[in-house]
Amino acid sequence: MKLYLIDGNSYVYRAFYAIRGLQNSKGFPTNAIYGFTNMLLKIIKEKKPDGIAISFDSPVPTERHRLFEAYKAQRPETPNDLIRQLPYIRRIIDAFNINVFEIPGYEADDILCTIAKKASEKGMDVFIVTADKDMLQIINHGISIYDPVKDRILDSEYVKERYGITPERIPELMALAGDSVDNIPGVKGIGEKTAQELLKDFGSLDELLKHPERIKKERIRRLIEENVDQIKMSRELSIIRADVPLSFSLSDFYVKEPNWQALLTLFRDLEFVSLMKLIPTTESMREYKTIIEMDRLNALVSKIGRSFSVDIETTGRDTLRDVIVGIALCANKGKAHYVPLSHSYEGVHTQIDKEDCLRTLRIIFENKDIQKIGHNLKFDISFLRREGFNVSGMLYDTMIASYLLNPNRPNHNLEEVAFEYLSYRKKTFPEIIGKRASFADVPIEEATVYAAEDAALAYELKDILFPQLEEEGLDKVYRDIEMPLINVLIDMEMAGFLIDTEKMREMSKEIERELESIKRRIYFLAGEEFNINSPKQLSKVLFHSLGLKPGKKTKTGFSTELSVLEELAEFHELPREILNYRSLSKLKSTYTDVLPSLVNPITGRVHTSFNQTVTATGRLSSSEPNLQNIPIKGEWGRRIREAFIAAPGNLIISSDYSQIELRILAHLSGDRSLIEAFQSGVDIHAKTASELFNVDINSVTQDMRRVAKTVNFGIVYGISPFGLSEALNISREEAKQYIANYFERHREVKDYIEMTLKDASERGFVKTMFGRKRPIPELKSKTTSTRQLGERLAVNSPIQGTAADIIKVAMINIWQTIKDKGLKTKMILQVHDELVFEVPEDEIDVVARLVKEKMEGVVKLTVPLRVESGIGKNWAEAHG
Prior knowledge:
Elements: E1 2-7, H1 8-18, H2 31-47, E2 51-55, H3 63-67, H4 80-95, E3 99-101, H5 108-121, E4 125-129, E5 143-147, E6 152-154, H6 156-163, H7 170-177, H8 192-201, H9 205-210, H10 218-226, H11 228-238, H12 260-270, H13 273-276, E7 287-290, H14 294-303, E8 307-314, E9 324-332, E10 335-340, H15 354-365, E11 371-374, H16 377-386, E12 395-397, H17 398-405, H18 414-422, H19 429-433, H20 444-471, H21 475-495, E13 497-499, H22 501-526, H23 535-545, E14 553-554, E15 557-558, H24 562-568, H25 573-592, E16 605-606, E17 609-611, E18 621-623, H26 635-642, E19 644-645, E20 650-657, H27 660-669, H28 672-680, H29 684-693, H30 702-716, H31 721-728, H32 732-745, H33 747-763, E21 765-767, E22 773-775, H34 784-820, E23 826-831, E24 834-840, H35 844-856, E25 867-872, H36 875-879
Parallel strand pairs: 1-2, 1-4, 2-3, 4-5, 7-10, 8-11, 11-12
Antiparallel strand pairs: 5-6, 8-9, 9-10, 13-16, 13-19, 14-15, 17-18, 20-24, 20-25, 21-22, 23-24
Helix pairs in contact: 1-2, 2-4, 4-12, 7-8, 7-11, 14-15, 16-21, 17-20, 18-20, 21-34, 22-25, 24-25, 27-28, 27-33, 27-34, 29-30, 30-31, 31-32, 32-33, 34-35
């Protein structure tokens, strides 16, 4: 029978210092809790103990404190961030149903030793989980030490090999050498190695103290003779007692089933998403039924009132090529139905004819008076759109609602949102699919539970999340921006972008030839061949073979990251060639090699997916493939854009907001100088340069303008003197002076930033002009670098978020106007502040005016919004 006894203090501290900076979205520190919980789970899962217990020190002084007042006195005060976490650690231990032993006046070590000795005598194999050296003394044939960090068992052989003595003599070693951890004095001048050598020559410490004349080295002999009392006291302090007055039975240690609901609640509050996934699937109290007869489907549809939720299961994520497998509906809390349509594995069930089913469902989906609920409705509506549905009515997307409430969360999938708001652990998609090819291969009985549950959970979440949106003042953002945007994005995704695949393939071959040429130059400059993609080999070439001055250190050597190579490129040609090689390799592997293979064979176009719930600022992101990251500058970025073309009879219009973030800063800060510049149409970067360098605006050089541009955008992003000095490759003092000069001319901007930081610190969040919120928990951090990051986020998020909201509203307005006017123009791409359209040649003039008017008139600011547009046969031509 295996018993694991955990030194709680030892591992709470170890976890706290091992994991830095971890906190939840509210700014509450969670590093010690997370580390301790993981250690606990590691023991339970991997070691499978029969029994487990934890002990903590009590704050009451012990006998050792009475013996030596300075015992443990050198230890610093417990950090406040750790103190705040201790109650949660206790609650987690309690939820695991693990007994805690804590007795006033006794240390955890003594408690663990007492339990270990008694349990060992009863035939248990005892493993003490601790990092403290003094605990090695209680090791015997039935008691070992377990180190979970290094995952190793420490036994008598380890002690003999490490210290040259048997475990019970560890107090003698500490009596001579002392112990800095517990402030046991020992003998000053005698270290661990000397103490080991002394103990090897004597059978016991008492024998050594009785016959110091046998010590060969005079200095050591004198130290021993002069410190006999201190040595004896140090030994007394080091001995771990096994006589703590406590009684227990073996049943007190038996591993019990955890209180999963309590753990789920704690993990949810602490935002331990990875740990939440370890909790067993909750037994659902909901009722799920399969519908395989049209009569029953008609009856269900006829009873649907004001709202219903939907979950559509498909053969894959491709909304243009994959097919619907089944549809789940929920119109009453706790009751949901699944209609299988194209399962390849039917089991005991037949399936309803797909056309008959869709004909019936069309009635409710196209009824504008019936609310539609779902989690990621864009996906479901895309498939229905392909079936000819015109989904109408108010849309309640619980994924978007979750995102608006906490945009800092990395994931808003249904599993995690149900965890957070319903304390419910549902099966994940990979769990239900297993090794099957697609959802079509899932037996209908299993599919019913999974799909119907998705619909049921979304139905319940709607009544939780949307009232919270109202309370937080976010309902307007949802209603006016995010919800209408769903259909805009569906149209854009379905439209896609035509690409010249042959041109892309030729480009790929050309890049390959260029890479080979660069590779030869790299080998020539290095004087040897090596794996350019290996940071370790590159580091060796740069810092050993070439002798360049290394920068940042990593676990495997000196860093070869972008910033380091850029710095080194000023002194040697090789780092610059490495940067060129990396840049071209990325373009090739990300775009020219991949994009032709992603062309949809049905449409002949590349179809990206736009994500509303990824970026914390509110910006849209693009994936599968990401078309927002194609470089704007440089020859290859332009040439890749040239391969994005208009269909015959069409042209591309690219419309881009000019300096929108600086214009928003002018509006939010009310800075008179910025407002005047934008209203008069002055080049804002040239104006800033004239202020920074105290020259007439007509005397501003390109170099001055470049500096001013970096300062302007740096202010928007809350840049520090260090950041600006890095960006401009100037001294920190110069950068500091540039920022000071800027704020001297733009006092209102400085006041705005200070007020924003003050409000963010007090409220814990910032807002855009449209009311979108972003929590900034980093502002509460005790870590300087984390707090400074919070300050930059607090300054930038209202500006970048407002820009994101503006272009989203513009997209909605343009899309609606195009529909109202019956135009054939398609909005096909959004890249940050740019919108791209594919326009029939006979609509060019109308659409060019329409887009400019809608984008510039989307919101009234104290400064005008300006849009720069271009027209061309491809994206590069249109972008200019």
